[in-house]
Amino acid sequence: MKKLVIMLAVPLIVSFGLLLWIQQLNAAQGFGGDNTLVVYNWGDYIDEDLIGEFEEQSGLKVVYQTFDSNEAMLTKIEQGGTAFDVAVPSDYAISKMREENLLLPIDYDKLENFDNIDPRFLDKSFDPGNKYSVPYFWGTVGIVYNPELVDGEITSWNDLWEMPLENDILLADGTREVMGFGLNSLGYSLNTTNKDELIEAEEKLTTLWPNIKAIVGDEIKMLMANREAAAAVVWSGDASEIMYENEELTYVIPVEGTNLWFDNLVIPSTAQNVDGAHQFIDFMLDAEIAARNTDYVGYSTPNEAALEFLDEEVTSDERFYPSREVTQNLEVYENLGKRMNAYYNELYLRFKMQSK
Ligand code: N2P
């Protein structure tokens, strides 16, 4: 009898396990569906408790995947074979995805909480009328540094070259970010398409290698908190997150200017659960949910209604919530087209290969 039970149970358990495994795999590979929602976001860019709460509220199972650059996210979606229902590209990547018909329009009848967004963050040139995207976080690129480890005050990109910072700088690994500060340090636009300027920027960046300790991803926050480096080129939200625990650190928007960026929620055209995607976007737009998410990830929220739930010390800090006067002098990345993007990537790679 025992034998018979085992004989019957084993194949049953195996096939049940196999079924579950196939379901998970399908969702991850992009064969989502009505009960699943596949979300593709930057690493360290959500309070993961909120995913569970959304699942409970919506009855949907969220398959959550992350990327670490717009370029990686774009390549994956462009290649096809995925079924992300929600993704979080930045400005210039949104414009590129729009051009390539990779996005579905947002159905505003399905969003109750959209009015929570500060109009300052709407109707940008990368998505006029917000036809395809809803603001998620925004910020700048700048320098976070530890005044105890730096001899003097850092105010400019050129300080990275000129101050005694040997083997003491970390860089966030991003083509536009690194090429951008190289260009800005020379007084050029970070959207230049002038090849001479680009080559000059790449050559100047190469001379920074003696000061560069490493080019890294999200671990930049941990490394700075552990005093592994004196300064780092980071997105403002990463600086704010590090500084929350390590008050001696500070963040500066360099005097030569920098990038102002916007990350928005979009629905890729291959989505299998468009209704669920809208539910998720609306959930993230709720004032209290947005406040909790902001508090957790440390980035700046475009959700005006969320501000009242946040620490005023943070939301009134001009380093992280710079005023219009400051942001109007900063540059948003433009979509430079396939060939120019490839050229930026090529130069960035060449710079990286010359590490000491
Ligand atoms: C979060 C990265 C945010 C990217 N880890 C800024 N566009």
UniProtKB/TrEMBL annotation:
GO biological process, one term: polyamine transport
A Pfam family assignment: SBP_bac_8
An example molecular function term from Gene Ontology annotations: polyamine binding
Amino acids binding spermidine: 92
GO terms under cellular component: periplasmic space
Cellular compartment(s): Periplasm
UniProt protein name: Extracellular solute-binding protein family 1
Swiss-Prot/TrEMBL keywords: Periplasm, Signal, Transport
InterPro entries (alphabetical): SBP, Sperm_putr-bd
Classification of source organism: Bacteria, Bacillati, Bacillota, Bacilli, Bacillales
Keyword Nucleotide-binding: no
